User: Which sequence fits this backbone?
């Protein structure tokens, strides 16, 4: 099971760098196999971690494929993992799973045009930030703030989105994470422009 999990994780990383879906499909298959070898009744935490890994590979695949089937499966996998991973016993793992849940809700909400999915994504990112603090895991905190900002912007909560992007940029620099710093900077600029335009149109 460990070998299958490691194989699946490696395939996801390779698949994300490519344009096709073959490696991601293999990653999903590897994680499903690992899950079968780690029954919940015998090794609940290992089972939950396999669910997390499965959800990550399904989300990556679902973002490439049309429709929502894989995305729904990714959402379900994260929700299953949270049946065994608690905030008290494994706070950072719990936060990471909440973040994954947020990503799945957000992607589904965007694709389906359903505000309630986007709102659920916002809520999940908020849960993650209870344990992903600036002091303990600054880069994960900043990444989650950026994701939260994108979700908030999508549902029109621009002031809150700008605040999330500003929070992220309190930690991010071109040196510690150039790509994420650039993304958050561009996100903040875009939201500020939207806010300016809204104020100009206001009576």
Assistant:
């Amino acid at each position: 099971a460990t070998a299958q999990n490691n194989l699946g994780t490696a395939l996801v990383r390779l698949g994300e760098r490519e344009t096709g879906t073959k490696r991601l499909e293999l990653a999903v298959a590897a994680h499903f196999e690992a899950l079968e070898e780690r029954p919940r009744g015998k090794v609940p935490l290992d089972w939950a971690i396999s669910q997390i890994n499965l959800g990550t590979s399904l989300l990556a695949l679902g973002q490439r494929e049309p429709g929502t089937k894989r995305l729904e499966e990714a959402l379900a996998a994260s929700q299953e993992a949270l049946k065994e991973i608690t905030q008290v016993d494994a706070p950072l793992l719990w936060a990471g799973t909440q973040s994954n849940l947020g990503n799945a809700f957000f992607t589904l909400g965007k694709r389906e045009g359903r505000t309630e999915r986007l709102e659920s994504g916002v809520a999940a990112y908020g849960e993650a930030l209870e344990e992903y603090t600036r002091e303990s895991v600054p880069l994960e905190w900043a990444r989650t703030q950026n994701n939260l900002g994108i979700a908030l912007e999508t549902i029109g909560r621009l002031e809150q989105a700008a605040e999330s992007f500003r929070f992220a940029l309190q930690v991010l620099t071109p040196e510690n994470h150039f790509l994420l710093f650039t993304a958050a900077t561009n996100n903040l600029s875009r939201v500020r422009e939207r806010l300016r335009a809204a104020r100009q149109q206001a009576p």
Residues 105 and 120 are 6 Å apart (CA to CA). The chain has a mean pLDDT of 93. The longest helix spans residues 178-201.
